[in-house]
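Retro notes (design track)

What went well: tokenization of the new backbones is finally stable.
What didn't: we kept losing track of which sequence belonged to which structure.
Fix going forward: every design gets posted as structure first, then sequence, in one message. First example under the new rule, 489 residues:
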């Protein structure tokens, strides 16, 4: 009881209480009446803390998440993503000026609340955003995304946002993120048609014993049916995220649609996958249906998923080697900085270029258009570029212009897994994308020095290409360096 007086800050007190409740409940296992005793101890701690500080109400708080984040569910549409100034991005507390902007003085009792508090349940190693509730001011809460050097915060006063921007921070609203939906689907067949594997000369990789063993491919997608025969006997690492960026409670992997299962099997499925022994980590971030019944996600949801893949999927501080992304966004210079920092951290992003090619050049999507990612277009079984496959200048723009995609892979009527143990055909650059991600896993398995070296990995993959049929009217070329071909792996 007396220990609670050492925690004057409400965020620190809540974290201490959270750890104590875990200890008390663990000790209570198998002892009659012990759970009631734990609840009584909790009430006494809270009562004692309120009496000492004068606080009348504390926020409800669940056990700290695995990386030390504390979270109280905010209004998802009003939640913000705050990127701290580049010069101040570290693994410690942010720079003084930006941190000062995160001090909010309540109007009811003139108490300053520090939204950024480096003390957390991970022992202070990773900054976490504090929670507090004073009088009429309720539920300051948030998540620190260590891999992105960003914070997810609830709605902030305009003055606080202005101060953050003045300090050099970037404040982004929680906007909708679309996924690159297939141009066509056929759910009933396609079980035995593996033309996509033959087209990339997968036999050359198999002859060298390359299956992706020891490499982890991460996905930001609709989820996965981990019970599908393509994943039998495999550990599928799964985390579901809410639109506000918070983690949903641990549960069995699920696919909110069909896309994620189809895509994951093309990378690492038992019979359909390029790298059947690669490990799969799925961040389920495209989980909401819009008015047209299309699956969408939110900016904070995707950011939290990317952060989890980078530093948590394989355990504290350990992330994936490759991320497969089929997201359809417009260019945003500030979000580009997030992708740039992610790649600089050692993770290759393989991104679908988009399916609006019939509209002409320049309708390609982010992150596929970013200069720091490996962008993938689609071809058919005759090695011709699909009509829907996008192309256009890389962003940010450079002189001379560089064009995307970087290469192409099978993406028309591709057979892969569907939820419920089924198989089916889909077409789109988001089918070609995981085929290249699987090839990246083979290259890392073959050359361990390329793990954590996205630039070198891209250079190696672009050498594993074959020329496309002549297309004199394709200026600039729509197929990048050519089609993926593993004959010389």
């Amino acid at each position: 009881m007396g220990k609670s007086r050492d925690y004057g800050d409400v965020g620190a007190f809540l974290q201490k209480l959270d750890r104590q409740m875990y200890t008390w409940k663990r000790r209570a296992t198998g002892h009659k009446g012990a759970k009631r005793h734990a609840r009584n101890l909790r009430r006494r701690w809270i009562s004692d803390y309120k009496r000492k500080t004068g606080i009348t109400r504390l926020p409800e708080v669940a056990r700290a998440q695995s990386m030390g984040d504390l979270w109280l569910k905010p209004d998802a549409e009003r939640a913000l993503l705050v990127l701290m100034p580049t010069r101040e991005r570290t693994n410690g507390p942010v720079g003084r000026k930006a941190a000062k902007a995160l001090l909010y003085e309540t109007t009811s009792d003139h108490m300053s609340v520090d939204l950024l508090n480096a003390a957390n349940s991970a022992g202070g190693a990773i900054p976490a955003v504090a929670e507090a509730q004073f009088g009429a001011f309720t539920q300051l809460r948030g998540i620190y995304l260590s891999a992105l050097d960003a914070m997810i915060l609830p709605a902030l006063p305009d003055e606080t946002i202005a101060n953050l921007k003045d300090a050099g921070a970037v404040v982004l609203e929680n906007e909708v993120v679309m996924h690159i939906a297939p141009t066509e689907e056929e759910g009933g067949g396609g079980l035995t048609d593996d033309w996509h594997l033959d087209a990339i000369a997968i036999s050359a990789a198999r002859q060298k014993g390359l299956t992706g063993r020891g490499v982890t491919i991460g996905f930001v997608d609709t989820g996965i049916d981990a019970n599908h025969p393509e994943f039998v006997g495999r550990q599928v690492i799964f985390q579901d995220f809410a639109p506000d960026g918070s983690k949903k409670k641990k549960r069995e992997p699920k696919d909110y649609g069909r896309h994620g299962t189809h895509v994951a099997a093309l990378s690492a499925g038992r019979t359909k996958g390029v790298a059947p022994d690669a490990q799969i980590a799925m961040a389920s971030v495209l989980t909401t249906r819009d008015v047209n019944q299309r699956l969408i996600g939110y900016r904070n949801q995707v950011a939290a998923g990317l952060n989890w893949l980078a530093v948590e999927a394989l355990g504290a501080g350990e992330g994936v080697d490759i991320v497969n992304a089929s997201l359809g966004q417009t260019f945003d210079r500030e979000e580009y900085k997030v992708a740039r920092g992610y790649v600089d951290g050692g993770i290759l992003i393989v991104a679908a270029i988009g399916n609006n090619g019939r509209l002409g050049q320049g309708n390609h999507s982010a992150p596929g258009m970013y200069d720091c990612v490996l962008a993938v277009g689609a071809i058919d079984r005759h090695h011709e570029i699909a009509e829907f496959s996008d192309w256009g200048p890389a962003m940010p723009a450079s002189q001379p212009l560089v064009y995307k995609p970087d290469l192409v892979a099978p993406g028309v009527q591709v057979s892969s897994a569907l939820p419920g143990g089924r198989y089916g055909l889909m077409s789109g650059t988001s089918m070609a994308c995981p085929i290249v991600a699987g090839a990246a896993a083979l290259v890392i398995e073959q050359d361990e020095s390329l793990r954590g070296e996205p630039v070198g990995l891209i250079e190696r993959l672009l050498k594993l290409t074959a020329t496309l049929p002549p297309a004199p009217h394709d200026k600039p070329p729509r197929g990048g360096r050519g089609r993926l071909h593993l004959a010389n792996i």
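Added context from the reviewer: The CA atoms of residues 68 and 123 lie 8 Å apart.
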